[in-house]
Design a protein that fits this description.
This protein has three helices and no strands. With 106 residues, the protein is mainly alpha-helical. Helix 1 packs antiparallel against helix 2 and helix 2 runs antiparallel to helix 3. The model has no long low-confidence stretch (mean pLDDT 85).
Length: 106
């Protein structure tokens, strides 16, 4: 696969920026409470595989893309499922003061 040099440099710069996001997400994941660590670690994994994909594109390595793309899809799917389940759980929780008053009292 032939990629022009100026596009390769763009991919390398993009990978370097993503490394900063990996570091930031890993720091947030380490500081998170035990019950809230999955989301930040998924974000760190998403950025880390983005680095791998960017470098694979920059080097023109199709094999890296073939092996890293399903990993990215799995991570993004997991994040999406967690997001949908969190919204569903938040929507099902009753809010205080909402609903009918017991015994017809207002």
């Amino acid at each position: 696969m032939h990629i022009p040099d100026w596009i390769r440099w763009i991919f390398f710069v993009f990978a370097a920026v993503q490394l900063l996001y990996v570091y930031r997400a890993a720091q947030l994941a380490r500081r998170a409470e035990p019950g809230r660590r999955t989301g930040p670690w998924l974000e760190a994994a998403d950025h880390a595989t983005g680095v791998v994909l960017s470098i694979g594109l920059a080097l023109g390595a199709v094999s890296v893309l073939v092996f890293a793309a399903p990993v990215v899809l799995a991570i993004l799917s997991w994040q999406g499922i967690r997001s949908v389940l969190a919204r569903r759980a938040a929507g099902a929780a009753p809010t205080t003061g909402a609903g009918a008053a017991p015994g017809g009292e207002a």
